[in-house]
Amino acid sequence: MSLDHVVLEGTGRPRVVVLGVPSWTQTALPFVEALAAGHPTLAIASMQSDPPEPSWAELCAQVERLVTSFSTEPVDLVGLSFGGALALQCLVRDVLPVRSAVLAVTAARFRARERGLIATLQSIVCSELPARGLVDGLLPMLLSPDFLHRPGYMGVLRAQLEGDLGSARLVWGQRLALLATHDVRRSLGELHRVDRVITAEQDWLFPPSESKLLADGLPNAELRTVPGGHAVWLESRDAFVELVHEAWKHAA
User: Fold this and answer.
1) Closest CA to 214 of 78, 62, 104, 89
2) Are residues 104 and 84 in contact, defined by beta-carbon separation less than 8 angstroms?
3) 226, 243 in Cβ contact below 8 A?
4) Which candidate among 60, 105, 185, 198 keeps its CA 20 to 30 Å from the CA of 215?
5) Strand partners for 7
6) Can you tell me the distance from the alpha carbon of 244 to that of 252, in angstroms, rounded to the nearest whole number?
7) What is the arrangement of strands in the sheet containing 194-200, beginning at the earlier edge strand?
């Protein structure tokens, strides 16, 4: 068993999308297709893996196997949230053939505040709290207040998350626990292939200040901001996709 993944056919330079938690490749397919824009694309989600409690090194090894079997030429890479942390871990280990990388709503490490939020969320996810209660607590962490007031869209999103929770709670908890050990600050100066860091104005889970520190530590990366909360793949999809495509287009 490996990480949940899907391959889209196309032409041009290959692209790799590393999704966050909670994300499944099938439910994220419209977002992945927008990023792919007709290019051959590998999308990876971290909601399924073997062994059940992998380390960063083990997850990176799984990503390496998927990417090297997908493409023999350098890829354009984007990682979001937990996927951004995983992409960073892979870049630090230099296990991927990457031409240009974009990192979004993530950080080089998480402060005590964010680690506290992650630990709280982990304990809630692994508790016996009914799925509806968990979803109602999770959504304000991911989305801005304005987005929470869209009842039709939020109803669909609640139903989707509640359905996913049945088989995924343990994996969610494991991934959240792994974030507490994420710290690549000492290696940022070596990551010359990261061209852009994207943050969200109202992301209080991984705030813009941490994205700025990440961008400042990278030799060639510029920081760009989109509206909304942490879940840029929902709130600011079009603006986000445009910024990713722009970074890849202008990469050396």
Assistant:
1) 104
2) yes
3) yes
4) 60
5) 42
6) 14
7) 4-8, 41-45, 15-18, 75-80, 98-104, 194-200, 222-226
Q: Are 37 and 64 in contact (CB under 8 A)?
A: no
8 A C-beta contact, residue 148 and residue 135? no
Tokens of 218: 């990278």
Distances from the Cα of 238 to the Cα of 38, 42, 85, angstroms: 16, 20, 22
| 159: helix, strand or coil | helix
Beta bridge partners of 75: 98
DSSP 183: B
* Residue given tokens 């998927």 in the structure block: 66
The residues, ordered by sequence, that sit 6+ positions from 23 with a Cβ below 8 Å of its Cβ are 45, 46, 47, 83, 233
Question: How far is 135 from 137, CA to CA, in rounded Å?
Answer: 5
pTM higher than the cut 0.85: yes
Per-residue pLDDT of the chain (252 residues; tens, 9 = 90+): 578 899 999 999 999 999 987 677 888 899 999 999 999 999 998 766 666 678 999 999 999 999 999 999 999 999 999 999 999 999 999 999 999 999 999 999 988 888 887 777 777 777 777 777 777 777 787 888 888 887 777 777 777 677 666 667 777 778 888 888 999 999 999 999 999 999 999 998 889 999 999 999 999 999 999 999 999 998 999 999 999 999 999 986
Q: Are strands 15-18 and 98-104 parallel, antiparallel or unpaired?
A: unpaired
